[in-house]
Structure formats: structure tokens, C-alpha cells
Amino acid sequence: MQDKVRICMFVLNPYVSDGRVRRTCRYLSSSGFDVVVIAESQSGVDDELEIDGVRVIRLASGGWPTSKGRFIKFMLRAAMRGAAIKAEIYHAFDLDALAPAVIASIWNRGSVVYEAHEYYVGLEALLGRPFTKMAWIIWEWLLIFIADRTITINNSIADKLRSRYGIQRPDVIYSCAENCNSKKNGLLRKRYDIQDQKLIALYTGILRKGQGLEILLEAFSEIESTELVIIGSGPMEDKLKEKWKMLKLERKVIFVGQVEYDELGDYYASADIGILLMEPEAENNRLALPNKFFAYLSAGLPVIVSDIPELRHFVGDYELGLVISPTKENTISAINNLASDKTLYQRCQANAVEFSSEFTWINEAEKYIRIYSELREG
Questions:
Q1: I need a surface site. Which of 35, 38, 140, 224 has the fewest CB within 10 A?
Q2: Average pLDDT of the segment spanning 365-374
Q3: Helices (DSSP H) in the chain: which residue ranges?
Q4: Residue among 231, 8, 232 at smallest CA distance from 105
């Protein structure tokens, strides 16, 4: 690439822990693009740093008493900062970052890429809030037609966006893991004194509603074959720890807290089973295909997942683990099944490794190059 093409990215989070966004920006930077990210600072002050060769400008959006105020402040500040960055392409990660990308692109006559990592108007947080949901639907409808290209993470969301808004079907780029690390290590066993004869089930992610976390705790009150490790933090953390104490799970369930993004691979490689029990009440949950699904498989972990379309398709077709309706009884049965049936466990483990060699981030990320080339060629 003779002259570096500048891409200005927008994301409403601090960037450092967003695995999909970091992988994308790192890949594009290593492929010769000049990548600038406008993200959110949660420290209360603006800052600027370089991560993996990517310039990250973080803008403080706090100081307003509501989440709506936070969104408006970020939108306005990010739009002004983005307009000052002369880029060919303005790329927004999710609906809450799309408006500043659109404004900056209009100011500089650039192209807009909208990348939807979730079906935003179907989020759990919008359940029971019809007026707020309608506002977001109108907002997305207004902006998605301005975008020159739309990208999403799976076929279910691509089809949903096409049918709801009547747009060209979005490009699908799966959130595959960047590296396969199926070589086991003893990190979790050594650090938390977990007995060799017990399996380690792993949950990673935000501790929030809709993730089956209370079901998991209830199930582990009756499971002896396996211990559960929970990595992450979030709005449900205090409630979960209260339940953890009430159920006397101190020797069965371990709360690790936040782990640095670059260290997560070692934790995955020291577990035995990946858990992904999304509760399907919210439409976004029903359509989901989370990053952690591919991360579990890249570490050679058989998975236990909810019976939702994308997970059912991959886990069923490739024999990667067990698909269940997320209830206490089903969770107990699935974990004990994998723990007791070595033939089943080893087959799923081998399939996970093979799957991860087929579905790779490098193959998926190459789609960005194609999309950008098509935009530049008009």
C-alpha cells in the first residue's frame, strides 16, 4: 500500500478490554492502514495512548447524571474530534457510536461503515421500555441509510437488519479468536488449589442479566464433578456474590474479577469446559454469537451453550459440546455428562481444535480489506 489510508474508528467504551475492536484495529494497522480510534475515557479526563501500533484518543464523557447524558456528551465531543481527523473512512462500532462517525464523514466527505456487534434495539436493557426502544429504532433507521456499508457478527443479525430496515444485507465477519491456544496449562488449578480430578468450567464476560449466571450458581450447589470459575465484573456482581455466600459455594465457585485482555488466553487454556448460557428473553440474546464462544473453542474447550439459533447451528453441526435450554436441571445434567463421558468429552475437544483451525480471525479480518477497497473504488 503506497499511501496509508486513514481509518477513523469510534467506540463508546475505553477500548482496552474490547477484544473484537482491538483485534480489528490491530489487524488493519498491521495491514498498512493508518488507524485512529476515538473511544471513551472513564477516568474523568481525556487521554491519548498507543496500543498495538494504534493511536487511541479517549474522551471523557462523565459528569452527566444519566446514561443519556453520557451518550450525548460522547456523541458531540467525538463528532467534533472526528471531524478534525481527515480520514477516508469513518467506522463506527455499534449504534451508540454511529452518529459521530456520520457527522465526521459528512464534514470530510468520507465513507461510513456501521459495524453492529449486537442487535441494539433488542438489548436486554430495553425490555419493558417501549418508548426508549422506539427512539433507538428511529435513530438506527435514520443513520443506517447514511452508512455506505454495514457489517455485523452473524447471519441472524444480518437478516434481521435487512428485514427491519430494507437495506442491503450486511456483510458478516465472525468474531473468531486471534490465536489458537489449545495447549493446556495449570494456571487456574495452581492459583486456586483446584483438585486434579475435578474439571474446571469457565464463564467469562460482563456479569449482567440474561447470561444465566444465577442458574449457574444454583446448578453448582448440586455439582461435585466440576468447579466453576467466573472471570469478569458488572452490575450483577454484588447480587451474585450474595447468592454465592447464601448457597455456601466458596469451595465450588471462584470469582476471579477482571483479567487483562492479553492474559485471558492463559485462563482459557487452563479450563476444561466453556459455559455460555444466554437467556433468550431479549431478542439480542436470541440472535447472539458472542466473542467468548470462539475464544473457548480456540482453547480446545468443549462448550455448553443455550439453545439459540447461531449457537445451536455451530455446536450441533460441528459437535462442539452440548446445547441446552438454560435451566438448573439441564445445566447439572450437561456438566455431569461431559465430566463422566470421556469419549464424548474428547470428541468435542478434538472438534473444537479442528473448528478453530477452520474459522480463523485472519480469514475473517481479510473481509475488512475487501470492503474498504470496494468503498474506495466507488
A1: 224
A2: 98
A3: 19-30, 67-83, 98-108, 130-144, 155-165, 187-192, 213-220, 237-246, 264-268, 283-286, 291-298, 309-318, 328-340, 342-358, 361-377
A4: 8
151-176: pLDDT as tens digits:
999 999 999 999 999 999 999 999 99
**Number of C-beta neighbours around residue 348 at 10 A:** 24
Q: What is the largest CA-CA distance in the chain?
A: 63
Q: How far apart are CA 33 and CA 233, in angstroms?
A: 34
Residue matched to cell numbers 469419549: 343
Task: HSE, CB side, 13 Å, CA atoms: give it for residue 260.
Answer: 3
Strands 226-231 and 253-257: parallel
Q: Of 187, 174, 205, which Cα lies nearest the Cα of 358?
A: 174
Three cell numbers, residue 374: 470496494
* Vertex 202: Cα angle to 158 and 327 (nearest 5): 70
Q: Are 231 and 264 within 8 A, CB to CB? A: yes
Query: What does the angle CA 359 – CA 348 – CA 358 come to, to the nearest 5 degrees?
Result: 15
d(CA 31, CA 93): 19
Whether residue 184 is predicted with pLDDT greater than 90 in this model: the reply is: no
At 299-313, the pLDDT tens digits run 999 999 999 999 999
Domains of the chain, start order: 6-176+360-377 (3.40.50.2000), 187-358 (3.40.50.2000)
Say whether 274 sits in a helix, a strand or coil: strand
User: Residue 270 and residue 74: Cα distance in Å, rounded?
Assistant: 39
Cα–Cα dist 71/83, whole Å: 18
The contacts of residue 66 (CB under 8 Å, 6+ apart) are none
In tens, the pLDDT along 108-149 reads 999 999 999 999 999 999 999 999 999 999 999 999 999 999
Torsions phi, psi for 91 (to 5 deg)? -120, 115
Contact criterion met (CB below 8 Å) for 210 and 124:
yes
User: Mean pLDDT in the chain?
Assistant: 95
Percentage of the chain modeled with pLDDT above 90: 91
Taking each helix axis from N to C end, the angle separating 361-377 and 19-30, rounded to the nearest 10 degrees, works out to 60
